[in-house]
Design a protein that fits this description.
4 helices, HK97-gp10_tail, two-stranded antiparallel ribbon, HK97 gp10 family phage protein, 4 strands
Length: 132
């Protein structure tokens, strides 16, 4: 039961390469998740003029080992459609409009999908580096 020192050296090189590309893979997966989330949230967004649907934006940023995906809508009434709002007539509350929860539902779906996407990409890179 022996091993060649060259095998250990090769393993070290492979691990160094995997470590170098891990962040790139994570950023690539984060971009895909953000794009998928934008498509889904737009499908769930109710349309009157199209302003709300067309204002969904995202950006991906990295701080240390953590990658953040920010999805936002700059339409001033977006939070009211998302979370619901009161109906006020002559200063009196006469009803409530339920929220549509487009973003909340999308984020719940993305949290289920993201780990599998990340795992698939990392496994693909590991197969490329270490061989089958």
């Amino acid at each position: 039961m022996g091993y060649e020192f060259s095998e250990v050296r090769l393993l070290k090189q492979q691990l160094v390469e995997l470590n170098k590309i891990a962040h790139q893979v994570q950023m690539k997966v984060a971009q895909r998740i953000a794009q998928l989330a934008i498509r889904k949230v737009k499908k769930l967004t109710p349309v009157d003029t199209g302003n709300l649907r067309n204002n969904w934006k995202y950006y991906v940023m990295s701080k240390g080992d953590t990658i953040y995906i920010h999805i936002y809508n700059q339409a001033e009434y977006a939070s009211f459609v998302e979370n619901g709002h009161r109906i006020v007539v002559a200063g009196q509350t006469v009803g409530w409009v339920e929220g549509r929860f487009m973003l909340k539902l999308t984020m719940n779906d993305m949290q289920k999908i993201a780990p599998n996407m990340w795992q698939r990409e990392m496994e693909k890179e590991m197969r490329r580096i270490f061989g089958d």
